[in-house]
């Protein structure tokens, strides 16, 4: 794949090193050697232990757990690579933190998704590789190229094998209709939408359902979950409307203690997610984690070789048996 001295390096921040290791296994290269430590006062120190002059650098760092720490670490890694004369620096951000704040929906609030984009660009990133943004318009917040991948090429084949009954893909709120429609097309399934009203930052109410779910297996799709409020409220409504069984497919599982309790007590049979962010437990088998390492490795290889990544969006849409 690479000629002469290695000119492609994949480095990892501290927020998801296992994912980076798996990516490097698929690329058949060693993970880049970088020192990341903290000064006594908590400041981050970064030093690349390899010569990366004129190299193609990929820094894997989802902005999560804690987002402030991981974001600052990413910025410092980018700056260090730029000052080490790297030829190109691609920030691989499987989960783009602060994406929820993508517009002013009330007075005197920030658009933090844009602020983070500015910080990453000014730090010296040449390109962004990310997955299932909370809002696709965030791509326009960057003045550098953005390759936006989807987890569906990993999740859809699993759902095909896991569920043999008649499927209905359900959007848990109006904002997720586009994602749900894509999944329904790929799975040759029905489509339904739940109406949601947010009560506060951790609680929601699901009140209306558009679509037929009676005696059918429902799959709720969303880009992320933290407290499981949206998914559980929608799942409860679906069971009330006669759904046979309820699954959920979420790209980014940022579930906290409240979310775990809700998920365990919910009618959701299984929450299918990816390792875009670390998932520490499976909630007694209720959480199924799928690896996106091979997908990201292919994208990194295509970018490094100057090839189009659009082929990674293709999924066999043959009808389910």
Structural description of this entry:
- The chain is α/β, with parallel strands linked by helices and 321 residues long.
- The protein has helices at residues 17-27, 67-83, 112-123, 152-162, 177-186, 229-240, 257-265, 293-304; strands at residues 8-12, 34-38, 44-48, 56-60, 88-93, 127-131, 146-149, 167-171, 190-198, 204-210, 217-225, 245-253, 268-274, 287-290.
- The chain folds into 2 domains: 8-151 and 294-313, Rossmann fold, CATH 3.40.50; 152-291, Rossmann fold, CATH 3.40.50.2020.
- It has 8 helices and 14 strands.
- The strands form 3 sheets. It has a 7-stranded mixed β-sheet with strand order 10-9-8-11-12-13-14, with helices on both faces. It has a 5-stranded parallel β-sheet with strand order 1-4-5-6-7, with helices on both faces. Strands 2-3 form a two-stranded antiparallel sheet.
- The chain is globular and about 60 Å long.
- Mean pLDDT is 92; it is low at 1-5.
């Amino acid at each position: 794949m690479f000629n002469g001295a290695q000119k492609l390096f994949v480095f990892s921040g501290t927020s998801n090193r296992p994912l980076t290791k798996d990516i490097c296994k698929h690329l058949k290269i060693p993970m880049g050697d970088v020192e990341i430590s903290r000064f006594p006062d908590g400041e981050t120190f970064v030093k690349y232990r390899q010569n990366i002059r004129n190299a193609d650098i990929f820094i894997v760092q989802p902005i999560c757990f804690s987002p402030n720490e991981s974001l600052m670490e990413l910025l410092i890694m980018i700056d260090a690579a730029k000052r080490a004369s790297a030829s190109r620096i691609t920030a691989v951000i499987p989960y783009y933190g602060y994406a929820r704040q993508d517009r002013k929906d009330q007075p005197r609030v920030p658009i933090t998704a844009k602020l983070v984009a500015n910080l990453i660009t000014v730090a010296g990133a040449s390109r962004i590789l990310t997955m299932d943004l909370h809002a696709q318009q965030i791509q326009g917040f960057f003045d550098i190229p953005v390759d936006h991948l989807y987890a569906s090429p990993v999740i859809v084949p699993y759902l095909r094998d896991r569920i043999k009954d008649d499927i209905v893909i359900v959007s848990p709120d109006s904002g997720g209709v586009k994602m749900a429609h894509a999944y329904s097309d790929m799975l040759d399934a029905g489509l339904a939408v739940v109406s949601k009203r947010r009560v506060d930052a951790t609680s929601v109410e699901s009140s209306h359902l558009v679509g037929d779910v009676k005696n059918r297996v429902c799959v709720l799709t969303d880009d992320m979950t933290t407290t499981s409020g949206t998914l559980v409220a929608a799942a409860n409504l679906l069971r009330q409307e006669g759904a046979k069984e309820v699954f959920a497919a979420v790209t980014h599982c940022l579930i906290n203690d409240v979310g775990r309790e809700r998920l365990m007590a919910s009618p959701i049979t299984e929450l299918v997610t990816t390792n875009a962010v670390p998932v520490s437990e499976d909630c007694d088998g209720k959480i199924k984690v799928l690896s996106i390492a091979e997908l990201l490795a292919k994208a990194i290889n295509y970018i490094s070789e100057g090839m189009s990544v659009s082929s990674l969006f293709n999924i066999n849409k043959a009808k389910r048996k």
